[in-house]
Design a protein that fits this description.
By secondary structure, this protein is of the alpha/beta class. Helix content is 34%, strand content 22%. The protein has helices at 3-7, 40-49, 62-69, 94-97, 100-114, 139-153, 174-181, 199-207, 226-231, and strands at residues 14-18, 53-57, 75-78, 83-86, 89-92, 120-123, 128-131, 156-160, 163-167, 188-193, 213-218.
């Protein structure tokens, strides 16, 4: 059964949320290689044409989402809700901006600790992701480094697929981003995701079940976390 089978033909009153990596884009070796897979942009355009409101909600910086999804009439939410692209302008959570120096120190520490290892340090300005996909043997070392930095700096360490993320300790995640954007009168909401970072969004959608159709679609992969699989 496809997504359109779940939603029907007339999507007026429907709000579709989707992740980017692992959903619109396949998981790739390094972050900069990610591109929307064939047909993904057309699918989003069809959803909009048939009346749905569409929000791409990602751990990526919103500037990256703009570069990949330019021209689509969809809302873009980056860094788990710390950034958004609305009316042609990028908006940033003001509280998160105060953590930029701390995130930068963590970035320098990551570069120092993993220089020459093929571990990828992805700076997002407001947050940081350290990828060990190319060196899975260094997982324990990367996670221990993130734990120490979290304790010392106050940043929150969050696991992701073959990576760990460091975020400002702000009560913003995909779940809160979903709740903020579902408008009165919405009849159905759908969340598509594949990773632990999507769990809060899935929970937020489930909390809406009393008032509207609430649908959750998990993209399966060999790396699918059991927590994510269980929530579908």
């Amino acid at each position: 059964m496809g997504i359109r089978d779940l939603l029907g033909d007339d999507l007026t009153g429907t709000h579709v949320f989707t992740d980017f990596d692992g959903t619109l884009s396949p998981i790739v070796g390094t972050p900069e290689q990610a591109r929307p897979q064939h047909g993904a942009l057309d699918a989003l355009s069809r959803l909009r044409r048939d009346g749905a409101r569409v929000t791409v909600i990602s751990g990526r910086p919103v500037s990256f989402l703009v570069s990949q999804l330019a021209g689509l009439d969809v809302e873009l939410v980056g860094l788990y809700g710390l950034e958004s692209f609305v009316g042609g302008r990028e908006l940033t959570n003001a509280e998160a901006e105060g953590w930029i120096p701390t995130v930068e120190r963590a970035r320098v520490s990551a570069l120092d600790n993993f220089s020459g290892t093929s571990v990828v340090v992805e700076s997002k300005v407001l947050s940081l992701t350290v990828h060990y996909r190319s060196r899975p043997d260094l997982e324990a070392r990367v996670l221990e480094w993130a734990r120490r930095v979290s304790v010392d700096s106050g940043l929150q360490a969050r696991p992701a697929k073959m990576s760990v993320e460091l975020h400002p300790p702000i009560s913003v995640d995909k779940g809160s981003a979903v709740k903020e954007r579902v408008q009165p009168g919405t009849e159905a909401v759908l969340m598509i995701g594949d990773d632990v970072g999507d769990l809060s969004a899935f929970v937020a959608v489930a909390d809406l079940e009393a008032n509207m159709r609430a649908l959750k679609v998990v993209v399966a992969s060999p790396e699918l976390d059991p927590q994510v699989a269980a929530i579908a």
